[in-house]
Structure formats: C-alpha cells, structure tokens
Amino acid sequence: MTHLEQAVIGQLVSDNYRTAAVFSKYRIDFCCNGNRTVEEACAQKKIDISAVTADLAEVLGVQPETGTDYNTWEPDVLAIHIVDRHHAYVANQIPVLQAYLHKLSNVHGGAHPELVRIAQLFNESAAELTMHMKKEELVLFPYIRQMVVARENGTSAAPAHFGTVAGPISMMMHEHDQEGERFRQIQQLSGDYTVPPDGCNTYRVTYALLKEFQDDLHLHIHLENNILFPKAADLEIGFRPAGK
C-alpha cells in the first residue's frame, strides 16, 4: 500500500492545489468530504485506485520551469513553445476556473460579493485571451516562421498583408496591457488571493489556480513583449533594402 493511498484528500489539496484537478477528474469530492483517504474515496466510488494514485504521482512530480535562457532561442521555436506551453495552459485552465468561480459565486457570493465581480472579470479575460491567442496563432506566428525559413534559405520574405510586424505587435501588446490590468483588479479584489476564514477547500483551490494563471500570464506576456516581438522586428528589418 502506497503513501498516496493513505493520504487524506483534503490535506493533499491543501498541500498542493494541483491535486484538485485529479480528484475533479474522478468526481471525488475534495471539499466537503475531504477528510477521507484516497483509498476510502476510491472504494466508495468503485474507482481503480491505481489510476488515481498514478495521476496524483504525476501531478506531484511536476516541477516549474526554471533557468531557461529564452533569449538564445530562435523566434519561431519560441513561438511554438508559447503556443504549446502557454496557449495550451490558458485554453485548458479557462473552463476549470470558470466552473470553480461559478460554484464559488453561487455558494459564497452572498457573504463575499467580490467573488461575483472576480468571476465577471475572469470571464471577460477568458473571452479576450481566446481571441488574442487565435490572432497570434493564425496571423503573427506563421509570419514569424515564414521569415525564419526565408532567412535560412537566403530568400526574401513574402510581404505580409498587414504591412509590417509592427502593426500586429502593437495590437498584441495593447491587449496584453488590458489583461494585465484585469488581473490586477482580480488580485486586488481577492486580497492578493487570500482565502477568508470561512473559505472551504474549493475556495483555496480556486484562488491558488487564479494566482497560478496570473503568474503564467506574466511569463507568457514577458516572453512575447520582451523577447519574441523584438526578435521578430529585428528579423523583418533584415529583409528591408538598405536605407529603408
């Protein structure tokens, strides 16, 4: 019998909020019935405990990215990384957070009206980020890739229908500012993601996920504003005739 089988669900979630996603996947209540062990919950729901503990072990083994020098990456490689890591994260976490915030607003919104506003702000951000990422994936990033290929082949880059990359870059940076401000409001309304004394495990998980979402968004925006976009602008300059 492993230590995860005997671990108390509520404690696991309190120690590492990422485990909440595993329990949600298997429809195991980690909030009101968090005092059960993983083994007890799986037995009650007739769930394969080995699958649950394997997922828990995977989540608990995840380490954050550290020490990567993104400045050394080619712009097209960095764009792919942003899509695979950050765009995918945003797309996956939006429905999770929307469900948690909806539940919190319904259960605790009376005593904590700020939750309703936080949910509204997050829904606005979700809609805007979804459109924002699509524009990058369908317009700007493919053109960056096209420029890299042209440089490698020693050919000219085909003219972009949007003129120069300065146009879409300016738009993307403006939208980054908007989402940064939206999350500053969420952070302020939540008291810097501080769970009130009457907050349950769902409350703690939601605020922890919101903070993680904001932290990921900050890295996401940093990679684009400060590394990818300048690289793309410099790359485009290399295709211009001298003196222009």
TrEMBL record:
Gene3D superfamilies noted in UniProt: nmb1532 protein domain like
Keywords noted in UniProt: Cytoplasm, Iron, Metal-binding
Domain named Hemerythrin-like: residues: 79-232
Pfam families: Hemerythrin, ScdA_N
InterPro entries membership: Hemerythrin-like (IPR012312), RIC_family (IPR019903)
Source domain of life: Bacteria
Protein location: Cytoplasm
Major localization listed first in the record, in broad terms: cytoplasm
Annotated NCBIfam families: FeS_repair_RIC (TIGR03652)
PANTHER family: IRON-SULFUR CLUSTER REPAIR PROTEIN YTFE
Protein name according to UniProt: Iron-sulfur cluster repair di-iron protein
